[in-house]
Amino acid sequence: MSGKEKVILAYSGGLDTSVCIKWLQEKYDLDVICVAGDLGQDHDGLEQIKAKALASGAIDCLVVDMREDFANEYLTSAMAANAMYENKYPLVSALSRPLIVKHLVDAAHAYGAKYIAHGCTGKGNDQVRFESSLAMLDPNMEVIAPVRDWDLTCREDEMAWAEEHGIEVPTTKASPYSIDDNLWGRAIECGVLEDPWAEPPADIYTMTVGPEVAPDEPTYVEIGFSSGIPCSLDGKKMPYLDIIYAMNEIAGKNGYGRIDMVENRLVGVKSRECYEVPGALALIQAHKALEDLCLERSVLHFKLGIEQAWAEQVYNGLWFSPLKEALDAFLADTQQCVTGTVRLKFYKGSCTVVGRKSAYSLYDFGLATYDASDEFDHDLANGFIQLHSLPCKVWAKNRQAMGAKMAQFSKVASTADEFTGQGSAVVAEAEDVTQTAANAVLN
Ligand code: ARG
Q1: How is residue 113 annotated by DSSP?
Q2: What residues have CB less than 8 Å from 272, skipping those under 6 apart?
Q3: Which residues are marked as active site?
Q4: By C-alpha distance, which of 417, 413, 441 is closest to 427?
Q5: 41 CA distance to ligand 1 centroid (A)?
Q6: Sign of the C-alpha dihedral, residues 385, 391, 396, 401?
Q7: Which residues are CB-neighbours of 421 under 8 A, at least 6 positions away?
Q8: Which of 98, 109, 262, 263 is the most buried (most CB within 10 A)?
Q9: How far is CA 382 from each of CA 218, 244, 385, 387, 393, rounded to the nearest angstrom?
């Protein structure tokens, strides 16, 4: 060991973070230790990533398979929350950041590092997520964000700098897109997608086929849930992680799971984003269908607001916040009886819930049916409706009684605008109108 201070770098194996290694050595005179995580993203192999980190000058590189933890700790909560930012985006990248930071902090403590570094730009949400998570896990740790701070403004500068410093640069033309992917899906931005009017080119997608080339026959799948977590596929017990992989495959093959949206970043920018989230969307849809069956109405309705708050917390990088923890406690409570089976039908880009069943089902055939076995007390409906609508009925009567007077009142008001000098007379008339309204209610 050199006796230099140490920095832990979140390393992906790409050009940016490889340049970061050299940059941290040159500009800050630090020993760099990389952490590379497998979250189910498309990669060339963890050992290859490690070799590249060492070749780029890192003194060590930890490779961690984070997939089980990601599924069992992060995607379980996401499932309970039916997590969708702005009701559309299942939080692919946002969910992965806190887990990565957890490993960075563990590494920093193990190596006695004083700094943590990430390769996020200064314009996105990910920098906020890295640094906010870090602030909550180790408030004393210092952050370095080389990409945000460096003066390598364009890709050409960066490649030239990399070559000068002996870092292997990709020989193939770099993709015009910025991509982040994991088990839960893929996020694609930049390039032609920056024009919100331009249709996404077919080549941005790798997890889903176009609906027009999907099979002409539907595919049916049965997802079993235990306390809100997927636990079986077509009757076969499987770990959640494996179910996610399988659902990505099945849904993707049927052309389901693409999202094209303009989203509001925390840093204030609207950005056009495309996502492929075949498994995530299908599983969330199935989970919601089971909740419809098993959750009592007011719990279900209240939960919708909690879900949105949860998604915002996570999107905004507050995974470890006390509010998010409290929301988790509520959500966990609601999931106890979300056990049962949902049947999905995939067909040419669509995914439809076509069946649901549960031992905890609150669906009561006797109450719901219109046939002869109906048990619903129709007489109760009459009194219920009268009381239910009473406050609004009182309001409507008042408005009816006031109809003529109100028309007159608006004439008075416009007169007041024209002749402000006569204000007091106008106020007197308005009070008269109020009195009439009060009488109408009393009568
Ligand atoms: N907009 C998404 C989010 O903030 C995805 C970001 C993905 N990052 C990327 N480099 N493409 O969660």
Answers
A1: -
A2: 189, 193, 194, 195, 196, 260, 261, 262
A3: 16, 97, 126, 178
A4: 413
A5: 14
A6: positive
A7: none
A8: 98
A9: 45, 48, 5, 9, 15
Q: Give the CA angle between residues 417, 420, 426 to the nearest 5°.
A: 80
What is the phi/psi pair of residue 276, to 5°? -125, 115
| Residue in this structure with the two tokens 């940059």, named with its chain if needed | 23
182 vs 187: CA distance, rounded Å: 9
Cβ distance 12 to 120 under 8 Å? Answer: no
Cα of 414 from ligand 1 centre, angstroms: 53
Provide the CA 108 distance to its chain's centre, in angstroms. 28
Q: How many CB atoms lie under 10 A from the CB of residue 187?
A: 22
- pLDDT (tens digit, 0 to 9) for every residue of the chain, 443 residues total? 578 999 999 999 988 999 999 999 999 999 999 999 999 999 989 999 999 999 999 999 999 999 999 999 999 999 999 999 999 999 999 999 999 999 999 999 999 999 999 999 899 999 999 999 999 999 999 999 999 988 776 778 888 888 888 888 776 777 889 999 999 999 999 999 999 999 999 999 999 999 999 999 999 999 999 999 999 999 999 999 999 999 999 999 999 999 999 999 999 999 999 999 999 999 999 999 999 999 999 999 999 999 999 999 999 999 999 999 999 999 999 999 999 999 999 999 999 999 999 999 999 999 999 999 999 999 999 999 999 999 999 999 999 999 867 777 666 666 655 555 554 554 455 555 555 555 554 54
Report the C-alpha gap between 369 and 381 in whole angstroms: 16
> Which of 84, 88, 120, 180 to mutate to test ligand 1, by most ligand atoms within 8 A of the CB atom?
180
Give me the half-sphere count of Cα atoms (radius 13 Å) on the Cβ side of residue 350.
Answer: 8
**222 touches 343 (CB < 8 A):** yes
For the Cβ of 96 lying below 6 angstroms from any atom of ligand 1, the answer is: no
CA distances from 211 to 203, 259, 346, 347, 396 (A): 14, 13, 11, 8, 51
Name the pTM for this structure. 0.90
Q: Which residue has the tokens 């988790």?
A: 328
What's the chain's length in residues? 443
